[in-house]
Give the backbone structure.
Amino acid sequence: MSKWEKILEQVLRGSNDANIPFDSLCGLLKRLGFEQRTRGSHNVFRKEGIAEKPNLQRDGANAKPYQVHQVRDIILKYNLGETI
């Protein structure tokens, strides 16, 4: 199992959203084909065909739990997990 598959599994499981590393969540979104635009502390991701634009900020070394939940909803809604 690759690093990205492990991160994806952690995000989809949803049992530990407060402990998802910020850099890993950003890397996962890039791996899923999202483009990243950084403006200050805001990291906005977009992808053609996806209406939602997740906006992530750090919470120390981790991503904010509610933002992990938003990313999970997008992955499930558009069946993006199959592309890893």
About this structure: Residues 40 and 57 are 10 Å apart (CA to CA). The longest strand covers residues 35-39.
